Amino acid sequence: MVQRPLDPARPQGPQIDVHYAVVPALSRNKAPDAVFFFAGGPGQSAIRLAAPLAAAHARLRQRRDLVFVDQRGTGRSAPLACADDDDRAALQPLADRSDEARRLQALQRCRQALQALPHGDLRFYTTEIAMADVDAVRQALGIARINAIGASYGTRAVLSYQRQFPQAVRRAVLDGVAPPDMRLPDAGAADNQAAWDSLVQACASDAACARRHPALPQRLPALLATLPQAVRLPHPVSGQAETVTLTRETLLAMVRAPLYNPAFAAALPAALDAAAAGQWAPLAALGQVLGGPGGGFATGQHFSVVCSEDLGPGAPPAPPALPASAPFAGGGTALYQAACAGWPRGAVSPAFYTLPPAPAPTWLLSGSLDPVTPPRHGQRVAQALGPLARHVVVPNTGHGTLALPCLRDAVARFISTADDAEALAQPADCAAKLPRPPAFQPPSGRAAEGRP
């Protein structure tokens, strides 16, 4: 661990401990440039991801240490966790999860509890300050240059790190690009809508899907028009049926979650048809695929970052709103706006929102079907980063292209290649022929068509 001032302007003021974990290289003759992993969210603990990521990136570990830093506010580094972040919170009633008013009240209680902590000045958890912590870890480990891998929000962290410490970066990999000027809550609506529209179009283009789900284009708008309504849903842990008042945002969250992964999104047409027939359990189950409360996520850190950077006074203007007729119009923004109204905001420099030329070879990876960090963000960032940047769009892939083993191998070659130009040109098209998963057909549907 390294000790860091809570407020960088007061180096002798209150201190916090920034924890990190190092998974050592397997080779005795290891390379000096370690690989640093930047977690997503914002709010994820990098250390909690160390075991699965070390296993997934075993090829990188052959000659390089893997370093996982719990960003301030997450994991063990001055955590800003709310009561609902505890793994036990998965047992809470479904009504508590789906009621926006209750969620806002819980966030307000959490903010008050966090502010009472010794490290509870919520203004000092911005990405810029956190990246200075990461560089302090680099220096403590005696590493001259790092290879940075970030996913989702972690790509914003990497972009901030290499802007602040360009001399310390040897290679950078951005998986699912979330640029600093993105305004996460506002951009989400348009990107979710695009992913939904893509699913509808794919079904219309597939004869079997179009035959089984002819009403799919109208299905989601029609269901939204019936809300709010009380429905019976099984609790994902206990299995006990509970009555929940289904709201617009709750339904959109159920649809949004499976869009992250095309394999789960393939089940949406059947689940929405079932919901239209009054059977909401399949759609509710799909809504849980991203996980419920808990899992090492720090909600307080999440809102400290978003309220300061995405909805703060210096943030770029909001993008144009979707037409009111679009199902995802306004989706997800109301809770953020309400919570951030009373959340302390940290100072964010104007430079934070800029994208200077990349100081080192940088790969940007985008899933073509990603509902939150689609290729449009990666393309814009790659253009700004200049000749040392390369944007790779992976077809028929959702959020997180490095879930594909062949992409991890490609990244390992990119990082291991000594020459910059050769590294940038390494093959990255291993998933170019990956097909989109066909629409899921429940077994009862096959039986109805007389199929085995």
What's a concise summary of this model?
The chain has helices at residues 50-56, 58-61, 94-98, 100-115, 127-140, 153-164, 184-205, 207-212, 216-224, 248-259, 262-265, 268-276, 281-286, 299-309, 333-340, 375-385, 405-416, 420-424, 443-448; strands at residues 2-5, 15-18, 20-23, 35-38, 66-69, 146-151, 169-175, 229-234, 241-246, 362-367, 389-394. It has 452 residues and is α/β, with parallel strands linked by helices. Residues 432-452 are annotated as: Disordered.
Overview of this protein structure:
The chain is α/β, with parallel strands linked by helices and 452 residues long. The protein has a domain at 2-107 and 122-182 and 349-424: 3-Layer(aba) Sandwich (Rossmann fold), CATH 3.40.50. It contains 19 helices and 11 strands. It is globular and about 60 Å long.
Which features would summarize this protein structure in a list?
globular; 452 residues; 40% helix; two-stranded antiparallel ribbon; Rossmann fold; alpha/beta; seven-stranded mixed beta sheet
